[in-house]
């Protein structure tokens, strides 16, 4: 079982904003403010930037393989966007894992597609749809209804946009930690302050929540029996309990408080 749960954090791609809107000479903050302003005009209120204008600054993952489970952020705090994307697709190339996300079909993967396009990152295994490997013809990463990528938000909503829910609320409903003091709206300011480590820590707690929801999803599907589900939760809990990272300690303490 190779399960790769992932999440990305993004900030405005001010370099592209500078090129597309001829904003040479302005600061990054000024360019981002203009990008947000233009987006509000375009959408009638929302300043959420288009996928191709989202620069990836963190990719975090929970990887379940063999007898082990681990959580980490790819690369280092000073890794370039290209390096992070290369590491993500290298994991797909090496392990051909089941990818698991929350809104990955609607956000994370399209952003990864555009940013890989920008940086010229090759990922033949990920893009395979059966031309070179027949095993991917009926089950690949690109089809919305195939299982090589499970977008939990999409699946649990029955692929109905009006039925989608926030990860934080579903996690909290199930007794998992959810958000713990940070959310996506704070990423840009945190990144600008130079605290990339805090962004990476936040991203890791998001993938932990996603993984816990995935385990419950596998339980209701019948792919895990109750005893197996309990064992999977204990394996993760034990790993987190031995971690020296404060954000992971806080996560497991919150989990305990809600009832582990």
Give a description of the structure.
- The structure is a single chain.
- With 260 residues, this protein is α/β, with parallel strands linked by helices.
- It has one domain (2-259): Ribonuclease H-like superfamily/Ribonuclease H (Nucleotidyltransferase, domain 5).
- It is 51% helix and 14% strand.
- The chain is built from eleven helices and five strands; from the N terminus they run βααββαβααβαααααα.
- The chain has a five-stranded mixed β-sheet, with helices on both faces.
- The longest helix has 26 residues, at 196-221.
- The chain is globular.
- It starts with a strand and ends with a helix.
- The mean pLDDT is 95.
Structural topology:
Layout: E1 2-12, H1 14-20, H2 28-43, E2 54-65, E3 68-73, H3 81-95, E4 98-101, H4 104-119, H5 124-127, E5 149-151, H6 152-156, H7 167-173, H8 187-192, H9 196-221, H10 226-241, H11 246-259
Parallel strand pairs: 1-4, 4-5
Antiparallel strand pairs: 1-2, 2-3
Helix pairs in contact: 1-2, 3-4, 7-9, 9-10
- The quaternary structure here is single chain
Measured distance between first and last alpha carbons: 24 Å
Approximately what portion of the residues adopt beta-strand conformation? 5-15%
What is the strand tally?
5
User: What structural category arises from helix and sheet content?
Assistant: alpha/beta
SSE series: EHHEEHEHHEHHHHHH
- Main sheet, how many strands, which sense, barrel? 5 strands, mixed
Q: Judging by the overall fold, what is the CATH architecture?
A: 2-Layer Sandwich
Spatial order of strands in the largest sheet: 3-2-1-4-5
Domain count? 1
* Text of the CATH class: Alpha Beta
For this structure, the CATH topology is: Nucleotidyltransferase, domain 5
Count of alpha and pi helical runs: 11
Rg, Å, rounded: 19 Å
The geometry reads as: globular
Average pLDDT over all residues: 95
- Name the CATH superfamily assignment: Ribonuclease H-like superfamily/Ribonuclease H
Helical residue percent? 40-55%
Uncertain stretches: none
């Amino acid at each position: 079982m190779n399960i790769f749960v992932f999440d990305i954090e993004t900030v405005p791609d001010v370099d592209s904003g500078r090129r597309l809107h001829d904003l040479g000479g302005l600061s990054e903050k000024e360019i981002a403010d203009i990008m947000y302003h233009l987006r509000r005009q375009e959408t009638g209120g929302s300043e959420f930037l288009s996928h191709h204008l989202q620069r990836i600054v963190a990719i975090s993952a929970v990887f379940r393989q063999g007898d082990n489970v681990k959580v980490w952020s790819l690369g280092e705090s000073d890794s370039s966007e290209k390096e992070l994307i290369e590491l993500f697709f290298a994991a797909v190339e090496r392990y051909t894992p089941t990818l698991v996300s929350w809104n990955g079909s609607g956000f994370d993967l399209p952003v990864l597609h555009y940013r890989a396009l920008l940086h010229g990152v090759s990922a033949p295994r990920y893009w395979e749809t059966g031309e070179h490997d027949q095993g991917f013809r009926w089950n690949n990463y690109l089809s919305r209804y195939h299982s090589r990528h499970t977008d939990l938000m999409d699946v649990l909503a029955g692929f109905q946009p009006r039925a989608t829910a926030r990860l934080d609320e579903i996690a909290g409903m199930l007794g998992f930690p959810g958000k713990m003091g940070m959310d996506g709206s704070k990423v840009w300011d945190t990144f600008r302050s130079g605290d990339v480590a805090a962004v990476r820590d936040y991203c890791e707690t998001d993938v932990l929540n996603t993984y816990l929801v995935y385990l419950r999803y596998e339980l209701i599907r019948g792919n895990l029996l109750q005893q197996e589900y309990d064992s999977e939760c204990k394996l993760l809990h034990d790993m987190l309990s031995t971690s020296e990272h404060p954000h992971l300690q806080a996560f497991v303490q919150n989990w305990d408080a809600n009832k582990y």
